[in-house]
Amino acid sequence: MTDSTLRERRGRTDPVLAHWRNAVFTIFALSGFVFANWAARVPNIRDILGASTQEMGFLILGMSGGAILGLVASSHVITHIGVNKAIRWFLAAAAVGLIAAGLIAGYVPGFWLLFVALMVAGAGNSVLDVAMNVAGAANERRIGKTLMPMFHAGFSVGTMLGAGVGALTEQLGVPVAAHLGVVGAAVIAVDLWVVRYLQPAEEPHETEGEPAGWRTRLSAWTDPRIILIGFIILGMAFTEGTANDWLGLAMVDGYGLTNPGGAAVFAVFVTAMTAGRLFGGAALDRFGRVPVLAGSALLALAGLLLVIIGPTAPIAIAGAVLWGVGASLGFPVGMSAAADDPRRATANVAAVATIGYMAFLVGPPLIGLLGEEVGLRNAFLVVLVLVAVAAVCSPAARKPKHLAEDA
């Protein structure tokens, strides 16, 4: 009996692995839940601050800048404290940033105070992002089944629930401080409970003739395949992040919807992403990473065009559905590809995530600046270019032959 068969049987019967899998799914969901509750209240916070579209772009840059700082440090931090501690501490940090953002917006509205709170949330979520993807890849290998799309579907479930909660609180007129404060406290409580079910995710760092240490971790940046995977994630993260940051506001300003209506369209987008990730695993198993990535890019392009040039709100909403499905698999497929080599998973995942998160650093101010001049819908044209780049780089996601042979 092969090792792969043993892992598969163990994955079906071992309750420890099943609890680990469910815990990782929950952690992905909590990460999405934190972000979506913030994103759903962006129009309301814009009104509280009296900020312009350009100013909101720079405010959102605070979360993106914190994310980049967290990603740069992530592989080193995770190596020193371990994957599970990183998940516990940095999910809590993201929730604390969310609570602070709500309190600042609700009681002492100030641009720079809110900027700092969003930096904390962004830094916490980015280290969490790397750690939970490493944990997911380790659990996937131990169980012997394709699980990464499902884990990222967990993130989408969290964003869907968060967007729904955000739309409901917006409709009911719940103060932003109360909304984000309660959500952040609940996330911390669930975090402390669910991490008890995680198992060690670390893989051996030593290989023959290769020393462990920070130089080994940084060597990911000299691997052409990892860089190209990073560009796949860059393009697909840009299209996903643009929707997260700006779709609700674009529907309000571009199609005359109310703030609750804009939040509801964002909920439609994340629901479409969730469906794409839940059913994407079957497509990946049948057609492979490269064709699925290319097809996803085409769907995202079609959806974007409908949102940009759609003559009516219903057509734009249909575009949001295609956009969501098209954007759904880019990030999980890229992360799975980066984690193909278990010995270098943390460093490789951190590297591609850092490249991908440049979309969240550059995207908000760029879309904000363009939106101020030409309108948000027209500003979305820049996203088309990066989606095309992701499609061109998609062959890099194919599993290397030497790793495929070892599987």
From TrEMBL:
Residues 225-407 form the Major facilitator superfamily (MFS) profile domain. It comes from the Bacteria. Gene3D superfamilies: MFS general substrate transporter like domains. The keyword Transmembrane helix applies. InterPro entries: MFS, MFS_dom, MFS_trans_sf, MFS_Transporter. Pfam families: MFS_1 (PF07690). Coiled coil: none annotated. This is MFS transporter. The lineage of its organism: Bacteria, Bacillati, Actinomycetota, Actinomycetes, Glycomycetales.
